[in-house]
Design a protein that fits this description.
Blueprint: H1 2-6, H2 10-21, H3 31-42, H4 50-65, H5 75-84, H6 89-103, E1 114-115, E2 118-119, H7 120-139, H8 142-168, H9 173-195, H10 205-210, H11 223-236, H12 267-275, H13 281-297, H14 303-314, H15 320-323, H16 328-331, H17 337-343, H18 347-364, H19 366-369, H20 373-376
Helix pairs in contact: 2-4, 3-4, 4-5, 4-6, 5-7, 6-7, 7-8, 7-9, 8-9, 9-11, 12-14, 13-14, 14-17
């Protein structure tokens, strides 16, 4: 029954983590995480305390893989199903402690998408805590609900301060826009789970506090978050999807060093792909093919073009040296159209273009987007 409820056997989940992040097993910094995986393989799944141990394992797996090329699919379990299965206050407190443990881990160990200390991992913990909060309210666990809401509030305030400071200080577009898209996604994670609470909680104060903070029509909207959402929608929405085509290039899973950074600034990553001894020419050809497929799937997306430009610059003979080995369906696209144009754009020119887009967006609505930390503090709870 517990295996059905939690959706996946421990051994299968650990195997999935190894499939996408085998390098964790040789990282000294990851050994506490590896110990969780090892213990899970030795534990029975139907003994006392199994629910909490299963949650701990699934949170560890999610932490380890959510920023890799093939994340484990445990979202619904850690946000909803495992909380619904808990009806005891002591068990709930132990399970909530598992979230605290997961959120305390350093995301840079498993992610190349951390900007000023903010990452998509923070949104994952928003969503898990929101799921737990909804269950705590159902169970009447007032103290636990207050603790969870306090963690959410503190993280919202931290992200708001960092983004407001970036705007006020005129931080480079790479910093400001990476923060904007991360905040927009994190707030979306929080709002989606809160919006999915049972109907009996539809008018609860916590729901009103945490839903649609980044939307202009949100009841508790905060100006900094609305701005982040607008910048994400206007400039970044196409640049940080799941890059599914890169799953085909399995060699990218060999090292933490090969993880994809925040898009669309992939020039350095492309140069790394061209030069790293972790890959051979066959591996590089697979990456090039996957990037071209990404371009064909989303022609306006800039990140894959910047990665191709980086590979082109750092490869003797340029991108043309890979063409003969590419699959026929992408071979003819390798050196024409927008790909050809991108190869002639330097990283500096591209950075200047992104800077111009950011400044133009900020100037369009000086009232909402003015670089004032006080104004961007927005409407407080």
């Amino acid at each position: 029954m517990r295996c059905v409820r939690t959706g996946i056997a421990n051994s299968v989940l650990v195997a999935q983590v190894r499939n996408t992040a085998e390098w964790l097993w040789t990282s000294p910094a990851a050994q506490p995480l590896i110990a969780i995986f090892a213990a899970a393989l030795d534990e029975a799944e139907d003994v006392a305390g199994a629910e909490v141990r299963m949650l701990r394992l699934r949170l560890a797996a999610h932490y380890a893989t959510v920023a890799t090329f093939v994340p484990t699919d445990v979202d619904a379990h850690i946000r909803h199903h495992q909380w619904i299965a808990i009806d005891d206050g002591d068990v709930f407190a132990a399970a909530r402690g598992c979230i605290d443990e997961a959120a305390a881990r350093d995301p840079t160990l498993v992610s190349a998408r951390v900007t000023e200390g903010v990452s998509g991992h923070d949104g994952e913990w928003f969503s898990v805590r929101a799921g737990a909060l909804g269950r705590a309210l159902q169970l009447g666990l007032t103290a636990e609900a207050g603790t969870l809401a306090g963690h959410i509030d503190a993280e919202l305030d931290r992200e708001e301060r960092l983004f407001a400071a970036a705007i006020a200080d005129g931080a480079p577009a790479r910093t400001t826009l990476a923060l904007a898209t991360t905040l927009a996604h994190n707030l979306g994670d929080l709002s989606r789970v809160v919006d999915a609470w049972p109907k009996a909680l539809a008018d609860h104060e916590y729901r009103n506090r945490f839903a649609r903070l980044g939307h202009a029509d949100g009841a508790r909207r905060r100006a900094a978050f609305v701005l982040a959402g607008e910048l994400n929608k206007e400039i970044m929405a196409l640049e940080n999807h799941r890059f599914l085509a890169l799953r085909k290039a399995r060699a990218l899973r060999r090292s933490r060093e090969l993880l994809l950074p925040a898009g669309p600034w992939f020039d350095d990553w492309g140069e790394l792909i061209a030069r790293t001894p972790l890959l051979d020419d066959g591996d590089r050809g697979e990456v090039v093919a996957a990037l071209i497929e990404l371009h064909l799937w989303s022609p306006r997306q800039e990140g894959c073009l910047r990665a191709l430009a980086g590979i082109h610059r750092a490869t003797r003979g340029g991108l043309a040296s890979y063409v003969a080995a590419l699959p026929a369906r992408v071979r003819k696209e390798a050196l024409r159209g927008r790909i050809r144009e991108a190869l002639d754009v330097s990283p500096q020119h591209f950075a200047a273009r992104m800077e111009k887009r950011l400044r133009a967006a900020l100037a369009r609505d000086a009232g909402t987007m003015a670089p004032s930390r006080t104004r961007l503090g927005g409407q407080r709870r």
